[in-house]
Amino acid sequence: MPIWYDPLGLALGVALDRLLADPQSPAHPVAVFGRGAARLEQVLYADDRRRGVLHVAVCVGGTATLGVLAVRATSRSRVLRTTLTALTTWAVLGGTTLAREGAYMSDALERGDLERARARLPHLCGRDPSGLEAPELARATVESLAENTSDAVVAPLFWGAVAGVPGMLAYRAINTLDAMVGHRSARYERFGWAAARLDDVANYVPARLTGVLTVLTAPDPGGARAMLRRDGHRHPSPNAGRCEAAFAGALGVTLGGKNVYGGRVEERPTMGDGPSPRVHDIPRAVRLTRAVSLAAACVAGVAMAGMSSFAGAWIRRRHRAHP
Q: Is the CB of residue 188 less than 8 Å from the CB of residue 179?
């Protein structure tokens, strides 16, 4: 029976993300998956929820199956198993790239280069940057850092600790599909429903874990805890609000307000008691993102080590019972 958990491989994958980040290459596994999902969408698309369910089932199920087969193929070699886990962890993580994007936005805004900042914002979120001034760009950056700390770091590590390589791959497939078809629009209102709902389910626990880790690593733990409890449920997303409220309390700022997405305006409830974020708050948010990411890696490593020990003991007992 193959062993699903390799904490050394997880640690090496986290180190690879720190060193190499997320190279913008068409050969990157997530980019390859995205192209395949887009081609399948062309075949299956209809303004119908059932077609969307089929699209998600094929994409996520196929990706998870590849993960299972890869684990089985490397089960007899510790080196291959560790290598597989390391490369998978590196492929699904985006923490270093997220922090670098935040630092880029901070630099552009500190230099007063609004055009450069507006052009870069789509790397972080889907809102329309064309009419945003420095304060709105700063708020968008801090909110995106908060939410994506969960999506890009905590969630893939969580699912790696739960289900090893297949879990990480399945989560990244779910999250990528949500970004592709899960947003509200005339085309994806029905077809993207399954992707959006599955992403909500997959991020339910990781988002709340992100909130807890934010409290534990925050410069103001009391403020982070208070805002997480008071405002975490106010966001229209069942998950993003937990991350944003904790960040708002940790940094002493207020998040939320008016957002524009491709001509569609959303008025979101505010979270926090401080002023709106300013440019100088972005580096603080970047540092918090890195602290939460490191804490998540430590927790996932310990959890995976425990799962690995449990699985190994269970396999040994089976061999003794059935030699």
A: no
CB hemisphere CA count around 132 (13 angstroms): 28
User: Apex CA 143: angle with CA 138 and CA 148, to 5°?
Assistant: 125
Residue bearing tokens 């310990």: 302
Q: How far is CA 61 from CA 84, 174, 315, in A?
A: 19, 10, 26
Report how far residue 242's alpha carbon sits from residue 264's, in angstroms, rounded to the nearest whole number: 24
Cα 303 from Cα 301, distance rounded (Å):
5
pTM: 0.93
The whole-angstrom separation of Cα 299 and Cα 301 is 5
Could you list the pLDDT tens digit for every one of the 323 residues in the chain?
456 789 999 999 999 999 999 877 888 899 999 999 999 999 999 999 999 999 999 999 999 999 999 999 998 899 999 999 999 999 999 999 999 999 999 999 999 999 999 999 999 988 889 889 999 999 999 999 999 999 999 999 999 999 999 999 999 999 999 999 998 788 999 999 999 999 999 999 999 999 999 999 999 999 999 999 999 999 989 999 999 999 999 999 999 988 877 667 778 899 999 999 999 999 999 999 999 999 999 999 999 988 777 666 655 666 666 66
The HSE-up count of residue 78 (CA atoms within 13 Å, CB side) is 3
Cβ neighbours for 235, distance < 8 A, ≥ 6 positions apart: 241, 242, 244, 245, 256, 268, 269, 271
Amino acid sitting at position 157? L
- In this structure, is the dihedral angle defined by the CA atoms of residues 1, 203, 62 and 160, taken in order, positive or negative? negative
In this structure, which amino acid lies at residue 290?
Answer: R
